[in-house]
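Researcher: Structure for this, please.
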Amino acid sequence: MRSYKYIIGIDPGVTPGWALYDTQKEKLLECETLSGIGQLFARIILFTAVLGEDSEYDDYAFIVEDARKIYHPPDGKEGRKQGAFWIKTLCSEIGKYLEERNANYVMRPPSKMKKMNSKLFNIYTGWEKRTSSHARDAALMCWKVNRI
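Model: Predicted structure, token format:
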């Protein structure tokens, strides 16, 4: 296991969640819902290709919520929740891209915890801006994590 200055939490989906956590300041720097997968990949590319080793953000790692790591019997209902398993394909593509870029990353199964509402999230993290459930999920993937 290694420590990183920045941990990036990603909640993949049609409206992905993105969070950037500073492990030294123990503070969320970004916590937002992106407009789609294009914007998600633009952010991932920014960190893996553009910023590179000469940036203040060179010491980072990704934690990606991986829908492939849960199994639900094919009763038809769970498939609809996951966009007919489209989300699993997206998780696979994110993992492949991060692997090809030699990025520091971990694919984690979705939390079994109940979703946190915005009021409790703001108290827990100190985040003061408005958030969606996707942004909160991304933030909780990386909150108080400094090693992967």
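Researcher: Any notable elements?
Model: The chain has a mean pLDDT of 86. The radius of gyration is 15 Å.
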